[in-house]
Design goal:
It is built from 12 helices and 12 strands. It folds into 2 domains: 161 residues, Jelly Rolls (Sandwich), CATH 2.60.120.280; 102 residues, Homeodomain-like (Arc Repressor Mutant, subunit A). Helices cover 47% and strands 23% of the residues. The model has no long low-confidence stretch (mean pLDDT 92). Strands 1, 3, 6, 8, 9 and 11 form a 6-stranded antiparallel β-sheet that branches. With 271 residues, the protein is an alpha+beta fold. α3 packs antiparallel against α4. Pfam families: AraC_binding, HTH_18. This is Helix-turn-helix transcriptional regulator. InterPro entries: AraC-bd, Homeodomain-like_sf, HTH-like, HTH_AraC, HTH_AraC-typ_CS, Tscrpt_reg_AraC-type_HTH.
Length: 271
């Protein structure tokens, strides 16, 4: 798993919990080849059933969690009198305008090791999702993010990768180029040359995913690297500025404070 690249994408993940509940599926729980406009998570408590995702059949059992991605073709079916009792939620998850399931490749059905923890997350999430207080959606979405973090980092540990179509995109090539060239004095024109795109078009394309220009994003990456070097307390501030391609220590301090609220000297002192 390319952690550095995935981390850059995940920093821009936006989620919206649509609904979350717990209960027994109805006798009419039956759908055939429906294309989903959102994601689903099913955490099975009891019972049996059949879920088909893009023509592949899954029969989740108690203690297992199923991720049904946005855009997939799903079918649902009851296969015995023991209908599913499950926690479930529907949600949108996007990086820019692209669904999370198009960015990542990961298993859709997994056994949950810490059942009480996941049960508690779903129970709280359902509670806040159905609470009419003004700020409940904030808490509901934060619980959804916690659940997704657990799903990708623990339940699917070492099984998450960039989707093939993302790994080969020009944006991904540019992120790798940025990561490998933090020491260089680069400008938007340099990034456009790597992408073989017009600089103005590149800026629009990049903003669609990351909400900022390539140059601002590159500066953020350099500041994150500067934080690491400042914590080590080995290099001087002037040396760090030079290593990260800033024209002068003064400009480095200006950009660092703009992003963190601290001067490099103060940041080193408090960390």
């Amino acid at each position: 798993m390319d952690d550095k690249i995935i981390r850059q994408y995940m920093a821009h993940l936006k989620v919206d919990l649509l609904q979350s509940h717990y209960g027994k599926v109805l006798e009419t729980w039956n759908e055939n080849n429906e294309k989903l406009g959102y994601n689903k998570l099913y955490f099975i408590d009891k019972g049996e059933g059949l879920v088909t995702i893009n023509h592949k059949k899954y029969m989740p059992r108690p203690g297992e969690i199923l991720f049904i991605p946005e855009g997939s073709i799903q079918s649902l079916a009851i296969i015995s009198p023991k209908r599913y009792v499950k926690h479930w939620c529907h949600f949108n998850g996007y990086i820019g305008t692209v669904p999370i399931s198009q960015f990542l490749s990961f298993p859709l059905l997994k056994k949950v090791n810490d059942i009480p923890y996941v049960e508690d997350l779903f129970t709280k999430m359902s509670g806040y999702s159905n609470d009419q207080q003004a700020f409940s959606p904030i808490r509901a979405n934060s619980l959804l993010l916690e659940l997704l973090h657990y799903y990708f980092s623990d339940i699917c540990k070492n099984e998450v990768n960039l989707a093939r179509q993302v790994a080969s995109t020009k944006i991904n090539t540019l992120l790798t180029f940025m990561e490998q060239n933090l020491h260089r004095k680069l400008q938007t024109e340099d990034f456009a040359e790597v992408m073989n795109l017009n600089p103005n078009y590149l800026i629009r394309l990049f903003k669609t995913t990351f909400g900022t220009s390539p140059m601002n994003y590159f500066n953020r990456m350099r500041i994150e690297k500067a934080k690491e070097l400042l914590k080590l307390d080995v290099d001087s501030i002037s040396s760090i500025s030079d290593k990260l391609g800033f024209n002068t220590p003064y400009y480095f301090s200006y950009v660092f404070k703009k992003h963190t609220g601290y001067s490099p000297k103060d940041y080193r002192r408090i960390t």
